[in-house]
Amino acid sequence: MSKVEDFLTKAEEAEIVEAIRLAEKNTSGEIRVHLEKETSIAPIERAVEVFHELRMDQTQQRNGVIIYVAVKSKQFAIYGDQGINDKVADDFWNCTKDIMVEHFKNGRNKQALVDGIVNAGQQLKKYFPYQSDDTDELSNEISKGE
C-alpha cells in the first residue's frame, strides 16, 4: 500500500469525516487528518509542518489537532496546538496513539483513524468543551499530500 489513494476507500473517507464532525460536536477543538505517501523526516516534525501549512494554528483557542499519516512509510503522528499543550501533560496523546497503532498493524486503517478521532475528541472535551457559540473553524475533509 504505497499510494495515498489506496489507503482508504471513498466510503471509509466519508466515515472518517463524519467521525470528525461528531467528535467536534463535543469540543471546541478542531481535528484534521492528513495523508501523504511518505516522509523523509520524523513523522512528528512533518506533522508540525503540515499543521502550519494547513493554517491550523489560526484557531481562536489554539486547540487544533492533526493526525498525520505517511502511508508508504507506515508512520503516523498526532500533534496538538499550543493552547492544548499549555493545559495537558507531555504524554497526553499517547493513549490515542496506543489505540490507533494496533489497528494500523492489523491493516484496519479506517478504524485506526476513526478510533483515534473519537478518543481525541473525548480528550479535548475535558479541556475545551463545546460552546454554544462555537463555529467549525477548519475543514473536516481529509487533506492529502504527495
Describe this structure in words.
The protein is of the alpha/beta class and 146 residues long. The protein is built from five helices and four strands. It has helices at 10-23, 43-53, 82-85, 94-105, 109-127; strands at residues 30-36, 64-70, 75-80, 143-144. Helix 2 (43-53) links the parallel strand 1 (30-36) and strand 2 (64-70). Helix 1 runs parallel beside helix 5 (109-127) and helix 4 (94-105) runs antiparallel to helix 5.
List its traits:
146 residues; alpha/beta
Task: Give a topology summary.
Elements: H1 10-23, E1 30-36, H2 43-53, E2 64-70, E3 75-80, H3 82-85, H4 94-105, H5 109-127, E4 143-144
Parallel strand pairs: 1-2, 1-4
Antiparallel strand pairs: 2-3
Describe this structure in a few short sentences.
The chain has helices spanning 10-23, 43-53, 82-85, 94-105, 109-127; strands at 30-36, 64-70, 75-80, 143-144.
